[in-house]
Structure formats: structure tokens, C-alpha cells
Amino acid sequence: MSxxxxxxxxxxxxxxxxxxxxxxxxxxxxxxxxxxxTSGDQTYYxxxxxxxxxxxxGIGTFTSPSTLSRDTILASSNSGSAVNLGxxxxxxxxxxxxxxxxxxxxxxxxxxxxxMNDSTSYTQKNVxxxxxxxxxxxxxxxxGITVPYDGVYELYANCYxxxxxxxxxxxxxxxxxxxxxxxxxASDYIRASGGHDEASTNLKVVVEMTAGEEVNLFVARLxxxxxxxxxxSESVYTVIKVD
Length: 243
Fold this sequence. Notes:
Elements: E1 10-13, E2 21-26, H1 33-36, E3 42-49, E4 54-63, E5 67-68, E6 72-76, E7 90-94, H2 98-101, E8 105-109, E9 123-125, E10 133-135, E11 139-141, E12 144-146, E13 151-163, E14 170-176, E15 179-180, E16 185-186, E17 198-209, E18 214-221, E19 228-230, E20 236-241
Antiparallel strand pairs: 1-2, 1-7, 2-5, 3-4, 3-7, 4-5, 4-6, 8-10, 8-20, 9-18, 11-12, 12-18, 13-17, 13-19, 13-20, 14-15, 14-16, 14-18
């Protein structure tokens, strides 16, 4: 689900604790959440508790007529955790957090792996290296990249292979939480003769994802058996939030 924004949305709430907010109506010269959003929409929100000197920015889901859940905390005066709201009136409004105002994405090198040609079935490879940059709070494991927000993402992988025997051919796919997608990119046959022992392939797809889902890479042998090694210094992954 994409994040929905609306102009001049600002209400008050007297909700306490760390749970969902009950919205109490628009402030003067502003509109209510129900005027700008449809029930079930996700949006960016900020809570300002001036009485208790507290604040919180996150992603929430609006439920008509007047409830806003606090699904994902992006930043807060409570060290990034949900603020335990005290008594008194708080302001709640839609705003774009700094992490999402500009470029949101992650890029890093692949890890070397000599098992690219081991299976004729698509098999997950744990080849995601430490990011060169990470804007927006993505989580990296060797198994894949976990996205921090609901939204639309561009996934990209460039894989550079070297083989020790003639005519291997490698296919790559992306998967989400281990479930393979249908798109395939395949390398050219690797000649492995006369000094020509390498090939590359790249794959780019655009996919809608939910916060907490992990991007994985699967590979398969499409031709002759050989030892085919993914080269770490020449291979790269990129995950970018585009909407």
C-alpha cells in the first residue's frame, strides 16, 4: 500500500499511552484526517505533545471516522520508540518526514559466491554485502534487504560471473520473503576459452512491497555444469523507493 498525503490536515487528540489515537477534530484553518484520507489509507504523521515536551513521527493507518494507528515509528523523543503520551491535548498532523523527503534507497556490493551454477532449480543465494549507502533505514542481511516502508520499490541487481569451464549460463530472479517473482534475466553463454571466461547479467523490476518484507536473490543453472563464481567487486544490488 502506498503512503497517502493531504494538505493542511491537523487535528488534536487527548489519547494517552502508546496505542492508536482518537482524533478530536480539525484545528482552525485546517482540515480533518477524514476530509483528506479514506478509511484504510496509510499516511505519515507527527504528534506534538507540548505539555509533556514529547514528539513522534511515524507511519499510521487512518480508520474512519476518527482513529489513527501508530504502525511504524520513524523518530521520536523516546529514542525512536513510541512515546507514552501523557494527559493533555496533543496536536496530530500529516507531514513528510526527513527520511522520505528526498532519496530513499540502499546500494551495496554482492558477496563472492562460487555456487552460482550448482542447481538447475532456482535457489536463494546469501550474497548481499554491507551497503555503500543506506538512506531511509533499510535492514541488510546476507540473505537480503528488508524495506522500511510500505510502497513501490525498484529492485536492481548486476551480477558479474567468471567460469572455469565452457558454456555455462546463469539465470537470476528476485524473490520477496523467499517467494520467487516471474521475471528472469540470464547471462550469455560463458565461452571459457581463449581468455573469455566471464559474462554478466542485470535485472530491474518495480514491485509494491510492505514494510518488513525482504528482497532476496535466486539463481539457477541454465546450461552446462561448471564452477561459476559471482564476483564481489564487480557485482552490485540496489533497492530504491519510488512511491
